[in-house]
């Protein structure tokens, strides 16, 4: 199944287009309020867009003159809240999926048992939702969605409400069941994107700002949000001789990607581990020196993540103490040019 969706929601200032290939999993990344869940809602039929088109495997679900109701789309959606029927057992909750698509009681029950077993909750078939843990309930909800044999599966942060000890188990289950199944998943977790998605689409302020293969986007991000979730620093500007000139006028030198043209928009990307923190200008080999002000200190085991607005550096505990770092301290972030990668800004070819 393939998906093509172009959605305009005027009141929410959302205008995005997404394509998903047959059997592909695409992760939608972006800050809260960016428009990710709105896109899913429009594809599922829970929101009616002001304009646009949704085509699932050649069948038009939405356009200027077409509106297919949610129950007739062949789309299943799983959100943070499992939304199980409280008066039904796990078995009957899952059986509701195939029953809703026209299967008889016996066949629906058979499929429900199969999915409960496949999701390792078969022993919970006779329990009601109040008797299930969060992870168990989410597996049952996933079983209900899959038992209906949807043409498209939508996952809206399915692990966001789970305990950190439970989420890895569900993530492992999803790795198995999403194989060759056309899926769109909304997540804030880079691990979800890496383990589950073939491609990622980054949405900010209601617009697609970056798209590409998952590992490429997270290794060499071109948008601020992708860099943030990948744990990398990103500075944007225009290409000049020697590097990227920022809006503030400083030039960040680095190793340029092939074909990076002078005057074009570009980003400089580098790891917090590559950044040294100084109080006074350093000497020695040529390097980038960025004046910043500490905004936050985050302990990370034997290291401290020093945040300065959108930039960050990792230093040892002893270095943080020697530098007397506290929020508000003016410092210099120093990074060698060979540790900085320069890439075109924005969208890339998939």
Descriptive report:
By secondary structure, the protein is α+β, with helices and mostly antiparallel strands. The protein has 9 helices and 23 strands. Helix content is about 25%, strand content about 35%. The strands form 5 sheets. Strands 7-8-9-3-10-11 form a 6-stranded mixed β-sheet, sandwiched between helices. Strands 14-13-12-16-23-15 form a 6-stranded mixed β-sheet. A hairpin with a 5-residue loop joins strand 13 and strand 14. The longest helix has 14 residues. The two termini are about 20 Å apart. The mean pLDDT is about 90. This is ABC transporter, ATP-binding protein.
Q: Which of globular, elongated, flat, extended, rod-shaped describes the shape? A: globular
Give the helix proportion (percent range): 10-25%
Look at the structure and give the mean pLDDT. 92
**SS strand fraction:** 25-35%
CATH second-level architecture of the largest domain: 3-Layer(aba) Sandwich
CATH superfamily of the largest domain: P-loop containing nucleotide triphosphate hydrolases
Keywords: ATP-binding, Molybdenum, Nucleotide-binding, Transport
Protein name: ABC transporter, ATP-binding protein
Pfam families: ABC_tran, TOBE
Organism: Aeromicrobium marinum DSM 15272
Question: In summary, what is this structure?
Answer:
The protein is α+β, with helices and mostly antiparallel strands and 350 residues long.
Q: Could you name the key traits of this structure?
A:
2 domains, six-stranded mixed sheet, alpha+beta, 9 helices, single chain, 350 residues, ATP-binding, Rossmann fold, OB fold (Dihydrolipoamide Acetyltransferase, E2P), 23 strands
């Amino acid at each position: 199944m393939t998906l093509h969706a172009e959605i305009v929601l005027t009141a929410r200032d959302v205008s995005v287009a997404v394509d998903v290939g047959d059997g592909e999993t695409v992760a939608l990344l972006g800050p809260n309020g960016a428009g990710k869940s709105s896109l899913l809602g429009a594809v599922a039929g829970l929101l009616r867009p002001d304009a646009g088109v949704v085509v699932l495997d050649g069948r038009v679900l939405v356009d200027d003159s077409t509106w297919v109701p949610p129950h007739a789309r062949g789309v299943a959606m799983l959100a943070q809240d499992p939304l199980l029927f409280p008066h039904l057992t796990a078995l009957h909750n899952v059986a509701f999926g195939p029953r809703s698509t026209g299967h008889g009681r016996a066949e629906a029950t058979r499929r429900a048992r199969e999915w409960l077993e496949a999701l390792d909750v078969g022993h919970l078939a006779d329990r009601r939702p109040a008797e299930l843990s969060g992870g168990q309930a989410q597996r049952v909800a996933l079983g209900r969605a899959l038992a209906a044999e949807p043409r498209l599966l939508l996952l809206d942060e399915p692990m966001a409400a789970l305990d950190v000890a439970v989420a890895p188990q569900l993530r492992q289950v999803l790795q198995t069941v999403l194989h060759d199944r056309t899926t769109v998943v909304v997540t804030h977790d880079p691990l979800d994107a890496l383990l589950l998605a073939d491609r990622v689409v980054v949405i900010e302020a209601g617009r697609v700002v970056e798209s590409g293969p998952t590992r490429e986007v997270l290794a060499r991000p071109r948008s601020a949000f992708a860099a943030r979730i990948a744990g990398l620093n990103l500075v944007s500007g225009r290409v000049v001789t020697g590097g990227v000139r920022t809006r503030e006028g400083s030039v960040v030198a680095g190793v340029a990607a092939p074909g990076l043209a002078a005057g074009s928009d570009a980003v400089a990307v580098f790891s917090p581990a590559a950044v040294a923190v100084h109080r006074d200008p350093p000497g020695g080999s040529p390097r980038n020196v960025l004046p910043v002000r500490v905004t936050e200190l985050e302990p990370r085991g034997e290291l401290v993540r020093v945040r300065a607005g959108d930039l960050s550096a990792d230093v040892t505990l002893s270095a943080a103490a020697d530098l007397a770092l506290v929020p508000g301290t003016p410092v210099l972030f120093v990074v060698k040019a060979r540790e900085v990668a320069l890439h075109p800004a924005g969208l890339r070819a998939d």
